[in-house]
Amino acid sequence: MFTTILSMQKEKKYIIQGSIVFIIFMGLYTLLDFLNIGYDGMLEEYGIFLVIGNILLNVVMAFISAFMWNVSTALVKLTGREGKGSFMSGAAVIFGMLTYGCTPCVIAFFSTIGITFAVAVLPLAGLPYKFLALVLLVLGFFWLRYEANHVKCKVKKENPN
Predict the structure, then answer these.
(1) Prediction pTM value
(2) Burial class (CB in 10 A: 0-12, 13-18, 19+), 48
(3) Which has the closest alpha carbon to 99: 65, 125, 138?
(4) Distance between alpha carbon 159 and the CA centroid of its chain, in Å?
(5) Alpha-carbon distances of 125 from 28, 55, 98, 106, rounded to whole Å
(6) Which of 58, 65, 88, 106 lies at a CB distance of 3.0 to 4.6 Å from 29, suitable for a disulfide?
(7) Could you give the angle at the alpha carbon of 111 between the alpha carbons of 110 and 115, nearest 5°?
(8) CA-to-CA distance for 36 and 61, rounded, in angstroms?
(9) Over the stretch 64-94, which tens digit does the pLDDT of each residue have?
(10) Residue 125 contacts residue 50 (beta carbons within 8 Å)
């Protein structure tokens, strides 16, 4: 089933949808970087390699998120139900908002729910947290792929005759 979903990704609808979703997620991840310290601050404090690493991670995470969106959409079209792994891209964005956001905002948020000074200082401008978000996305992708290959309701293949 996953190979069928992959072949559907060549359709114009999925290319356009994937491009739009990629741009949206790229904008979100870039915004989170600016809310944290910004690329100028990263460059000044940590150097060019951290900036390049953050931008590359943003691209990879936005691509995975957009691809998962497309896979989930194709899975719904073929089976009539959404895969459970598709929520991981949204979870990664929420995770990013809680960890990459400005430190005073995060501390204030956590303190309102009883976790005081949980994130006092984000090392390397939140890079370890971005890696955790990437791991969440990769796990979500493999979960979605597993669900696509093990669909509970079989889809009838059309007879070419």
Answers:
(1) 0.69
(2) exposed
(3) 125
(4) 37
(5) 16, 12, 13, 14
(6) 58
(7) 70
(8) 17
(9) 888 888 888 887 787 776 555 555 555 655 5
(10) yes
Residue type, 99: T
- In this predicted model, what pLDDT tens digit does every residue of 101-127 receive, in sequence order? 554 555 555 555 554 444 445 677 777
Locate tokens 């359709």: which residue? 11
Angle between helices 87-99 and 103-112 (to 10 degrees): 110
Q: Which two tokens stand for residue 21?
A: 């979703």
